[in-house]
Amino acid sequence: MKLPTEKKLKIALTMGDPNGVGPEVTVSALNNLQDMAIADWILIGEVNIFREAAKLRELPLKFQAATIENLENIPSNTFPVISTGKDIEPKPGQIKKESAEAAHAALEIAISLCNDGITEGLVTAPISKEAFHNISVTFPGQTELLAKGANVDKTVMCFIAGSLRVALATTHLAIKDVPGALSIESLNRTLNIVHEFLTNILELSDPLIGVCALNPHGGEGGILGSEEKEIIMPAIQRMLVRGIRISGPSPADVLFQKAESYDAILAMYHDQGMIPIKRIAGLKAANVTLGLPFIRTSPDHGTAFDIAWSGNADPTSMIEAMTLAAQLINKSQSKS
């Protein structure tokens, strides 16, 4: 896909947990993409955090506190930062209540900007799920919180690296809870959302989706598990009746060996999809949340507390996430 050139997009960009690598990879990505001018980035967080991250990376970036009302008054060579109202300083690698509260507030502000049409999409830096849990946020991750904020009851995590696309049937669940979270209906909804993304946004003609089995060797006819026979295959049959091309369920190790044969792959649980795409694409992958009324992307890594504020965080996946957001917004707008 080509980068948008017709007009500058407005895209929100959250700082994530300020004690992680989010601020560092964000400023590095902003610097990397500055000459491409693919969007006007509206940062959500605290000016001092972004300034310190830029200083750490020795980047000549300018940041200025802004409000929704005065965004148009910010100089063109300066990034506007809408504050969360939290007085915070970076505490590298630490799980802190105030940092989680700031990250949560940034996400809520960004959702409002998208819902109100002030920004056309959203890129989120990593948050700490443990820190969110400690402040009683009842969502296991940003994906689920975004769904509630956008008032949708079904979203799909999908990781993209070039033509490789890996969607997840379940997201942030303990392994023991995955089988109980699968149903014919939930898989049909997931496959519908993935198919609509492939056809409506990416404009692929008659795409093929490969579906992973849940159990080893595809369940071995029920000997190693019955989910394939009782849930996954019936869900696939429903899609086939509608003329949607689905292949599977296939053992994940077999399916990913021929990943290039599919327009998307549906994994049954988080690590089943994440391990192969990271092994194949490394940091060149980015996450997009399908099913939202706006485009949201994020890097394919977490807070990386162990290297936070060391100057060693690789911004590649954040660059991919920001570029992908602009690409997908441009594609979606070209159809409206």
Description:
The chain is α/β, with parallel strands linked by helices and 336 residues long. The chain has two domains: 1-152 and 292-336, Isopropylmalate Dehydrogenase (3-Layer(aba) Sandwich); 156-289, Isopropylmalate Dehydrogenase. It is 38% helix and 18% strand. It contains eleven helices and twelve strands. The chain has helices at 22-33, 47-56, 97-115, 129-134, 142-149, 178-181, 184-201, 227-241, 252-257, 270-281, 316-334, and strands spanning 9-14, 39-45, 63-66, 79-83, 121-124, 156-161, 164-168, 208-212, 245-250, 264-267, 286-290, 295-299. Strands 3-4-2-1-5-12-11-6-7-10-8-9 form a twelve-stranded mixed beta sheet, with helices on both faces. Helix 1 packs across helix 2. The longest helix is centred in the N-terminal third of the chain and has 19 residues, at 97-115. The protein is globular, with a radius of gyration of 20 Å. The chain starts with 8 loop residues before the first strand and ends with a helix. The relative contact order is 0.18. Mean pLDDT is 93; it is low at 1-6.
Summarize the structure in short.
This protein has 336 residues and is an alpha/beta fold.
CATH superfamily (homologous) name of the largest domain: Isopropylmalate Dehydrogenase
Give the class-level CATH name of the largest domain: Alpha Beta
- The computed structural class is alpha/beta
Q: Stretches where pLDDT falls below 50 for ≥5 residues?
A: 1-6
Largest sheet entry: 12 strands, mixed
* Mean pLDDT, all residues: 93
Give the DSSP E fraction (strand runs of 2 or more residues): 15-25%
Overall structural domain count: 2
Dominant shape: globular
User: What is the overall number of helices?
Assistant: 11
CATH architecture of the largest domain: 3-Layer(aba) Sandwich
The arrangement of helices and strands along the chain is EHEHEEHEHHEEHHEHEHEHEEH
Order the strands across the largest sheet as they lie in space.
3-4-2-1-5-12-11-6-7-10-8-9
How many angstroms separate the termini? Answer: 18 Å
Computed CA radius of gyration, to the nearest angstrom: 20 Å
Strands, count: 12
In which range does the helix fraction lie? Answer: 25-40%
CATH fold-level name of the largest domain: Isopropylmalate Dehydrogenase
